[in-house]
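FORM 7B: Structural annotation worksheet

SECTION A. Query
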Amino acid sequence: MILNIALPIIVTFATLFVTELLKKKHSNESFKFVKLHEKRLDVLEQTFKYLNLSLRLLRQYTQPFKFVEEGKTFIEQERELSINYRNTHNEFLNYFQDNVLYFPEPLEKIITSYFAECGEIFNIYDLKLQMTDEYTKPDRNIQFDAAFVHKKIPEKIDPIKKEIIKEFRNILGEKKRKWPIL
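SECTION B. Predicted structure
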């Protein structure tokens, strides 16, 4: 008789206990998921900032016509632009390598191609600077390549940036963009 009364009570308590354990486990998993998603969003935001800054500096460095700041020579200004881009690019690359696990593999490959293309454009233009001093100029081929390398940015880099933006939006859950990219 006591067993008939106690058994349903024991089963009820056991069921409640298991239910509470499952809720706690689900709650912990949800908390981890939310924290992971927050970190991923922070990484995406910082990556996007680096992407824009490094591209802006690359454009500034490789543009064919520049005003030389007062008190500087053209070569001094070019060296400063080169160092600014190089430092930002390397900082971005280190940040990306430190946080690569937050990116899906296809996006990782796209960003890696971005680094490669930017590096190629930078190296073509920077070679002219490395071969130039106050008394010598690089040969005509180097000068020609450097003079037109800025045209590779819209051809090679801008499409990669658009692809990165598209992938970022997919991660953020946006299916179809409703406004233009400025």
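SECTION C. Observations
Residues 68 and 76 are 9 Å apart (CA to CA). The two ends are 78 Å apart (CA to CA).

SECTION D. Sign-off
Analyst initials: ____
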